[in-house]
Specification:
- The protein is of the alpha/beta class and 607 residues long.
- The protein has 15 helices and 19 strands.
- The protein has 2 domains: 11-252, Carbon-nitrogen hydrolase (Nitrilase/N-carbamoyl-D-aminoacid amidohydrolase), CATH 3.60.110.10; 283-598, 3-Layer(aba) Sandwich (Rossmann fold), CATH 3.40.50.
- The chain is 35% helix and 17% strand.
- The strands form 3 sheets. Strands 6-7-5-4-3-2-1-14 form an 8-stranded mixed sheet, covered by helices on one side.
- Strand 8 (155-157) and strand 9 form a beta hairpin.
- Helix 3 crosses helix 4.
- It is globular.
Length: 607
Amino acid sequence: MQNETTAVSKLRLAVVIPEVRVADVAFNAAQIQKTLANLKASNPDWIIFPRLCLTGASCGDLFRQDLLQAAALQSLIELAPLTAGTPSKVLLGLPLGVGEEVFEGVALLSAGQVEALMLAPWPDSPALSPSVRLPVNSQVQIGDRSVLLDSQHPFRFGQTEILLGHYPPGAAEAELLIKLINLPALAPAEETPQTAFDPTARQGVTVICSAGASESTTDQVFSGKAEIWQNGRCLQTELELTFETQIIQVTVDPEATLSVPFPQTEKEERKPTRFPFISTKQPEKQFARLLEIQSTGLMRRLLHTRQHKVILGVSGGADSSHALLVCCQAFDRLGLERKDIFTIHMPGPGSSKSSHERATLLAELAGVRQLTIPIGPAVSAHLEDIGHPEGLHDVTFENAQARERTQILMDLANQQNALVVGTGDLSEIALGWSTFNGDHMSMYNVNCGLPKTLLLRLLVWAGGFLFGQAGEAIAQNIAQAPFSPELLPLDETGETSQKTEEVLGPYELHDFFLFYAIGRQMRPDEVFGHAVECFQADYTPSQILSTLKTFYRRFFSQQFKRSASPDGPQLLEISLSPRAGWRMPSDASSALWLEAVENIQIPGNQV
């Protein structure tokens, strides 16, 4: 790589989060060309695009397609001349095929040509090879030139250092540090740096650039994070989850220093809390970000499928009610009419009057279209067809109702050219509390990243955010209702006889276990000890231990449902997506963990 001979006194920086279409190289190249033309007047010294911006960073195994690689390389060749006659150095990302391997490359364009090609040491996509597999002295033909591939990470260009991925800076003294890292948009309870180093504690100029929300939202919504820092102070940032191209520009003096010393802060160790998924410091900020990510994921899917209608089943429960609020927010942001949100209430043998009233009140307030389709006759006919004994209220009786409802939703979606929005939450996904190929299935599940305890709080906040006091009151009433799938006949009072937490145990315990056993990977005895400490005022150690057994047993046995889970956005540190989160075989044994739980001893005076 060519080195700068002198350090410049001023640096003009531009960070671009372009609109992309995944695997549409022509569209992406056109957006980059338009951006370079718009920036020509300001002549930045550096124009920084996200990794793999020529193809989109979320192509997956499509990266290994020669057709995609060739199109990206050709676009790079055609874009390089646009830097002629300007001082700009441009960073563009693309997949690069070398022999049998495909690498993640970052091209440095300067003075009308491809000045350098750098390879990521450990790409985010498993379809791309780490740079250590690159044969020595490998080159790529760029027009009539051969360009040597550089795998010596971090990359140096005079007083500039370029980092790809989750790696700390190799030389803190670099005047300009460019960090290209694709970050998902998340809203954890405790905000922590996602970039493996803290820019507030670094002298010099730091640029952070991530792919944006126009990438695929199959399992994550990319943050589109664009930041420029100097000496620990953020000069410019762009954090909006938008689909249009975003540009931030700053002129900095690399030699300038702040007179205020960096604050010396010690990292505070967070002790286990009852509700580890919920922010204690800024809950409303977390709730706003969660709703933004959920609605952005749905919006991207609607834009990609060119659909302007959604279908969702509503029961009057918390999950479907919150999914409705997400749909309203997505439609409002897209400028679509809420009358194209179809809420379908499908009462069955176990549906209570109160649940129907809750579903109706919220739908009326939201101004969406409502439809009621009783499933009793269809379920009875089906059970008769398969020879199921009348009056036997077993798992077949329950699951037939869930599958009938899913059939109605899917067929209505075909009829209306609409998208079926899923409602199941992260806690239910962890425990497998759904009917396989019933409520387990949808076309896009907006709630898959939300544990139940957080969803209940978010539901109430979102009801107030979207519809004021009336919305908050209705949402509060929904959140306080008992959890029930309402699949068994009603009791003599006309209310549901089926209570979810009587079968599973308290959701607040399960969410605690999910956070620490799966998210923090603690051993069963550690999880139990922390749970006793946090919940001793409400549950006995025996109750906690019994629920912990249920958690591990169901978490392992229900993996097959997660292995076939629909798309939906990650929202917190934990994702149970089989594609981009929790990867576990459906036939993994739970014996080790259940044995560890059985070996937990409870003192006689604490049982």
